Amino acid sequence: ERFLGIHWAEPAYMTRFLEVTCGTFTDPKIADEVVSLALEWEKEPTLLKRDIRGFITNRLMYAVYREALSLIEMGHTTVGDADKACRYDMGSWVTLMGIFRRMDFMGVDDFIYSFRRLFPQLSNRTDVPPLIKTIMENNGRGIHNQMGFYNYSEEEAKDWEEAFADFNEKMYHLASDYNEHKLGLVRDSK
Prior knowledge:
There is one protein chain. By secondary structure, the protein is mainly α. The chain is 55% helix and 8% strand. It has a 3-stranded mixed β-sheet, with helices on one face. The chain is globular. It starts with a strand and ends in a 7-residue tail after the last helix.
């Protein structure tokens, strides 16, 4: 009853996110104590009531990865444009309000029509997409060896590492400014 997991987001020292993950027999009181401890660490923890592969955050992100790869494979978009769609649309609001608060903000009724029309068309593939296989066959490791979805010079790879570190520091402070608790916006969710 005293065992649970903590899934840190990287870099752990600079992100506000972490997932507290219960095992089959974890005492909910112990989990609540760890969530409270994480708040003392100035994190914004989530509680996963049952240990499942990928936790919460990875499962959500892999659904996005799968759909983006499918759109690219079908010739509907490019890698660069899929990245732009995530950065400049979803990325503009997701840090502030998450997906369900966004639905509340937009009006939940607006989503019913879209769900009915779009869900049947979303990818539900279970294999590794050919684009990923090709990158791996060419030993692509992204910025680590300058080959991936994009090609990088050594300088560009270093610039991305530095930009990511700078961005994380800024996001840490920005997220703390818009912390639900700090703003008094915390309400019970269903």
